[in-house]
Amino acid sequence: MTIKRMDHVSIVVDDLPTAQAFFTSLGLALEGETAVEGPWVDRINGLENVQVDIVMMRTPDGHGRLELTKFRNPRLVEIESANEPPNTLGLRSVMFTVESVDDTVARLRAHGAELIGEVAQYEDKYRLCYVRGPAGIIVALAEELF
Asked: So what's the architecture of 9-73 in CATH?
């Protein structure tokens, strides 16, 4: 059997409204919000008494989705540093193709994003950069030049 599709990427955040505003500014649209708890959620997570709030965001083309999750219970487990460099083991980044890297970076900075490194051009194909977004996640931006 083969994979049908990639459904979504989930990001655990400590401030759901701030994360939602960040990704809305990036251009994602709110698909839905819900609170989830119960035995089935406990079993999936391997934790007890899980209570989470979820905001599902969708890309403008309707194909990509991003789940923002805030744990109310149990409390968040913080990693030593939420600002690890791009070469840290694990999930590296979530990449979005945007109309203008410069405009997008400017909008995201208003929501606390920090540019990692600088905007760079790859041949005559892309302008690329990394920004650090909510919960320290790295968001990669690509502007097509063709």
From this structure: Roll (3.10)
